[in-house]
Amino acid sequence: MSRNSKALLGFFALDIRLSVLIFCSIFLASMIPLVAISSSTSGQVVISSSMAVAIFCAISGFVITKETFPFSIRMGSTRHEYVLSVLIFSVLLASFMSGLNLGFLLFSEWFANLAGLDNISLLVLSDLLTSHVSWYTQFGFDFMLFLLVFILGFFLSAVFHRFGMIGGLITIAFVFIAMFVTTIRTVVIDLLIVTERTADSLDVSINNLGILGITIVLAALIWIILKNASITPGVMR
Question: What domain count does the chain have?
């Protein structure tokens, strides 16, 4: 790894540090009224930390080009080093947020049992796919999910930077319309999940190879988009 790549990773970490702290503070602060409501009512309270972290990762990927690309190139990094560093950073961020989410789930389950909060339900996304969830299965599921949504956000941010608002909106519209085509939708679903039918049940799990393949394709498209991109956003040129 080059010196510029190491410097970029440090820059990305410093840039996102405050965002992570704000996200965690807001999320944890929102738990206080939920716990209070659950202890005073008989209704069911559902908490989904995985969904919240996934949204955070998607937004982080969507803004990273705007916030870091021009500065990184001005400081002497090449576009190849920039794209490679963001991809490495996405793996590190997905790992960190997966561990953070896993810690929150384990602590929340322990606290709910200790306080007798039976009406608090933790909506774990991996439970929607399979009933056999261990801590490492949960970590792996979250990692792939957070990595994929970050790369998706990074891809869209690269499109908006290179081609401006019109190019970005056309890309979003194209993807949205494509999902209505049955063949394309079926292929995408098969790339994301794997179904195994047994005699008495239907086991659904994530397709790690499929998600990895989507990530590699998106990474290649990002490199193609940014390799000759100006540091000035497309909407301003």
Answer: 1
Residue 53's H or E segment, with its range, is helix 49-74
Q: In angstroms, rounded to a whole number, what is the distance separating the alpha carbons of residues 115 and 21?
A: 27
- Identify whether the C-beta of residue 161 lies closer than 8 Å to the C-beta of residue 66: yes
State pTM to two decimals. Answer: 0.86
**Distance separating alpha carbons of residues 175 and 171, to the nearest angstrom:** 6
* Rg from Cα positions in the chain: 20
**For residue 151, with 0-12 CB atoms within 10 Å meaning exposed, 13-18 middle and 19 or more buried, which class applies?**
buried
Q: Is residue 202 part of a domain?
A: no
| Domain membership of residue 57 as a residue range | 3-164+218-236
Q: Residues 21, 96: contact at Cβ < 8 Å?
A: no
Beta bridge partners of 53: none
pLDDT by residue (tens digit) across 173-204?
A: 998 898 888 888 888 888 887 777 666 666 66
